[in-house]
Amino acid sequence: MYWFDYEDRSRNRELLDYAISSIVLSFVFSYSYMIHSRLDLMPAVIIAVISSFTLHELAHRSIARANGIYARYRAWYIGLLLALLITIATQGEFAFAAPGAVVTYTTWYSPEVEASIAQAGPLTNIIMGLVCLALSLLTQGIANQYLRIVGGINALIALFNLLPIPPLDGYKVFRVRIVRWAISFSLSLVLWMIYKFL
After folding, report:
1. How many domains, the chain?
2. Mean pLDDT to the nearest integer, 29-39
């Protein structure tokens, strides 16, 4: 009985953390569109943020659980506050995205498994970015703009998370399999540059 109560509270806390993180990230990435009166593109930003962030974290959690590791998403409220302050201070020119992370609970440790869990999130964003890029080549107008926004945010999230700096995902992959990290990081960098400059 007590275990089920704990599970319910833990699940509710995870959903609350997801919701708060999604709201803050949506504001952060759509702020520049708001102040430049591009309200027509704000739905694309919100779709991009919620899908890229949620899929990223769910990928982490899915790989962890596939390896028999208990995992839950936890928001980092200091990071969310910093994101808001930096966004407002820079008028949306710089988006800082460190909303939280999937926390794992296990009695054993494997660097290989940790690297696989870490890489799952950015790889999901890279795949999303590539799919949006391919579809954007087949569309025009508002659909093209939406796809480029969704793909661009996915590319940015992948690139940021693959930086080899602790505690980011990139560091966990870099210290175990540098070749795997280099390929993922290079792909995310090229993808981000395509969205940024083309």
Report:
1. 1
2. 87
